[in-house]
C-alpha cells in the first residue's frame, strides 16, 4: 500500500477549489492513475460532515479519501509495486511527491 503524504500539507485556504484538482500517479514514468477530485463520490465538505458524525476532527487531521482508478491490483494481470520502483504523485497547484519502493 502506498499513501504519499508530505513534505507539505496544504490547508483549504491555500487550495481554493479542492473539488477540481487533477491528480496523476506515475510508476517508473508510466501513468497509472489520472483523476480529478471532481470524480469523488462525496465532495470534501460532505466527507467532513459525514466523518464528523462519528469522530471529532481537529485542525491538522488528515482524511484519506481513497484513490483514483488504476491501482495495480485491479489490472489484468495485477501489477504490484516492486522494490526500486519510483512512484510520482503530482497534484495541481501543490506539486510532485516522489517516493521509491524499498527493498
Walkthrough of the structure:
The protein has a single domain, classed as Alpha-Beta Complex (Fumarylacetoacetate hydrolase, domain 2), CATH 3.90.850.10. Helix content is 9%, strand content 24%. The chain has a four-stranded antiparallel β-sheet with strand order 2-1-3-4, with no helix packed on it. The two termini are 14 Å apart. It has one helix at residues 44-52, and strands at residues 22-27, 30-36, 86-91, 95-100. It contains one helix and four strands. The longest helix is centred in the middle third of the chain and has 9 residues, at 44-52. This is Fumarylacetoacetate hydrolase. It comes from Staphylococcus gallinarum.
Name the features.
4 strands, four-stranded antiparallel beta sheet, mainly beta, Fumarylacetoacetate hydrolase, domain 2, 103 residues, single chain, 24% strand, globular, 1 helix
Q: How is the biggest beta sheet arranged? A: 4 strands, antiparallel
Q: What is the rounded distance between the termini?
A: 14 Å
Strand content: 15-25%
The number of distinct structural domains comes to 1
The CATH superfamily label reads Fumarylacetoacetase-like, C-terminal domain
Q: In what order do the strands lie side by side in the largest sheet?
A: 2-1-3-4
| Helix amount | under 10%
Along the chain, the helix and strand elements come as EEHEE
Q: Strand pairing plus helix content: what structural class?
A: mainly beta
pLDDT under 50 segments (min length 5)? none
Amino acid at each position: 500500500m502506498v499513501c504519499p503524504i508530505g513534505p507539505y500539507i496544504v490547508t483549504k485556504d491555500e487550495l481554493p477549489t479542492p473539488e477540481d484538482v487533477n491528480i496523476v500517479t506515475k510508476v517508473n514514468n508510466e501513468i497509472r492513475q489520472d483523476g480529478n477530485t471532481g470524480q469523488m463520490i462525496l465532495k470534501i465538505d460532505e466527507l467532513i460532515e459525514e466523518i464528523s458524525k462519528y469522530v471529532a476532527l481537529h485542525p491538522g487531521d488528515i482524511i484519506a479519501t481513497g484513490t483514483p482508478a488504476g491501482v495495480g491490483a485491479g489490472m489484468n494481470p495485477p501489477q504490484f509495486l516492486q522494490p526500486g520502483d519510483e512512484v510520482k504523485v503530482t497534484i495541481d497547484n501543490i506539486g510532485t511527491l516522489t517516493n521509491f519502493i524499498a527493498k
